[in-house]
């Protein structure tokens, strides 16, 4: 946490001083402070931005929103923590406002501020990988931003690779499979997540080339994992534009035949926002994948704009519930949403996967509602192919399984 740069944005001098001292006592050594939006924006321009803004709700309600919008547009802030004691319903509303600004929401730190609670929120930000990436609050290496030539060379050198985040059966704690994630391991040693390069890859028309490399890497790993007789399902993320290619399903079929892979062991995830205006060609490809025997999952369900009618129109047999709902599991409204999703999914004969499980309390809540599948940092973080095999076969999973599933 001592590498983070923070801004305490608070109107009241005494409360701001107490909050800053709390952060310094926690080991945060780069803490800025401001009492109004104009001063805060000037500070960010002067210091090159911050990782996180900690903002009092009253300050947010006055000129805070304007400040956050301007700071985000200038690329001067990544994430927000609200410091206030307000009803849960209002916290959720504030969260949506922050997210609509294009900022990462880390949570609400209830007043009076408690160091342990703040530490958990800051650690969650560090664990997400945002703090380790070149950017705000971090030293910038020259040439760290990839351009088109870098991407083309990266493809030629086969630097794009698959990482894996395991999925689990929440009742037994057994590994059910993994979501396959795209990463770019560059020659200079740094690792980039898709946010840093995927838009450029799409613009260059190279998304399928990168995807099928990762797809085959995943299938090779699946063969190895299944050699011992255990099932190991894989989920791959698709972009809607890929489905517009008339030959996409045929290419999937050819690769499956090449690796002797069972279509039923594969799931393709598509975000509901990407499918909002899915053309007929996309729907035809989705139908083709289902007829092939593959599964289709609506990813980040609940955060986009697709209606339940849209879900019924498209050939999904799984929904992946956004982790924001389980993060707010103490709110009655969030629990009601999860219960409703589980109920209608069962009615439609759909599987439900919950992502973003980070605490035992969240796990217990999901178990109590009968949710069967999930993933999250509580179980395992994304890892490389070598790390996954070592982690799976070294016996490490039995350690957390005994702790989280004592009756299993």
From TrEMBL:
<dbReference type="GO" id="GO:0000160">
    <property type="term" value="P:phosphorelay signal transduction system"/>
</dbReference>
<feature type="modified residue" description="4-aspartylphosphate">
    <location>
        <position position="56"/>
    </location>
</feature>
<dbReference type="InterPro" id="IPR001789">
    <property type="entry name" value="Sig_transdc_resp-reg_receiver"/>
</dbReference>
<feature type="domain" description="Response regulatory">
    <location>
        <begin position="5"/>
        <end position="126"/>
    </location>
</feature>
<dbReference type="GO" id="GO:0071111">
    <property type="term" value="F:cyclic-guanylate-specific phosphodiesterase activity"/>
</dbReference>
<protein>
    <submittedName>
        <fullName>Protein RocR</fullName>
    </submittedName>
</protein>
<keyword id="KW-0597">Phosphoprotein</keyword>
<dbReference type="InterPro" id="IPR050706">
    <property type="entry name" value="Cyclic-di-GMP_PDE-like"/>
</dbReference>
<dbReference type="Pfam" id="PF00563">
    <property type="entry name" value="EAL"/>
</dbReference>
<dbReference type="InterPro" id="IPR035919">
    <property type="entry name" value="EAL_sf"/>
</dbReference>
<dbReference type="InterPro" id="IPR001633">
    <property type="entry name" value="EAL_dom"/>
</dbReference>
<dbReference type="InterPro" id="IPR011006">
    <property type="entry name" value="CheY-like_superfamily"/>
</dbReference>
<feature type="domain" description="EAL">
    <location>
        <begin position="144"/>
        <end position="396"/>
    </location>
</feature>
């Amino acid at each position: 946490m001592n590498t983070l740069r923070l801004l305490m944005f608070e109107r009241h001098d005494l409360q701001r001083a107490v909050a800053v001292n709390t952060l310094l006592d926690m080991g945060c050594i780069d803490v800025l402070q401001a009492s109004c939006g104009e001063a805060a924006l000037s500070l960010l321009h002067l210091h090159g931005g911050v990782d996180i803004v900690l903002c009092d709700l009253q300050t947010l309600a006055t000129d805070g929103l304007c400040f956050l919008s301007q700071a985000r547009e200038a690329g001067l802030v990544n994430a927000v923590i609200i410091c206030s004691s307000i009803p849960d319903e209002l916290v959720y509303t504030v969260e949506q406002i922050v997210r609509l600004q294009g900022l990462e929401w880390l949570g609400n730190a209830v007043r009076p501020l408690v160091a342990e609670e703040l530490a958990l929120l800051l650690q969650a930000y560090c664990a997400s990988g945002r703090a380790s990436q070149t950017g705000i609050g971090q030293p910038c290496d020259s040439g760290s931003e990839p351009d088109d030539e870098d991407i083309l060379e990266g493809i030629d050198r086969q630097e794009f690779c698959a990482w894996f985040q395991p999925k689990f059966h929440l009742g037994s704690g057994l590994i059910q499979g993994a979501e396959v994630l795209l990463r770019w391991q560059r020659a200079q040693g740094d690792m980039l997540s898709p946010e840093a390069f995927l838009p450029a890859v799409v613009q260059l028309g190279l998304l399928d080339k990168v995807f099928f490399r990762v797809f085959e890497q995943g299938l090779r790993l699946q063969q190895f994992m299944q050699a011992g007789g255990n099932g190991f399902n894989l989920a791959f993320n698709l972009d809607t534009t890929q489905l517009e290619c008339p030959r996409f399903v045929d290419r999937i079929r050819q690769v499956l035949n090449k690796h002797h892979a069972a279509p039923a062991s594969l799931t393709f995830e598509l975000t509901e926002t990407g499918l909002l205006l899915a053309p007929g060609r996309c729907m035809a490809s989705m139908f083709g994948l289902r007829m092939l025997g593959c599964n289709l999952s609506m990813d980040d369900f609940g955060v986009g704009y697709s209606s339940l009618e849209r879900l019924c129109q498209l050939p999904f047999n799984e929904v992946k519930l956004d982790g924001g709902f389980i993060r707010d599991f103490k709110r009655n409204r969030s629990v009601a949403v999860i219960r409703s999703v589980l109920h209608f999914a069962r009615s439609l004969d759909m599987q439900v996967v919950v992502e973003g499980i980070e605490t035992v309390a969240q796990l217990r809540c999901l178990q109590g509602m009968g949710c069967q599948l999930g993933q999250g940092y509580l179980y395992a973080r994304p890892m490389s192919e070598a790390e996954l095999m070592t982690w799976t076969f070294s016996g490490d999973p039995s350690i957390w399984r005994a702790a989280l599933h004592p009756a299993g």
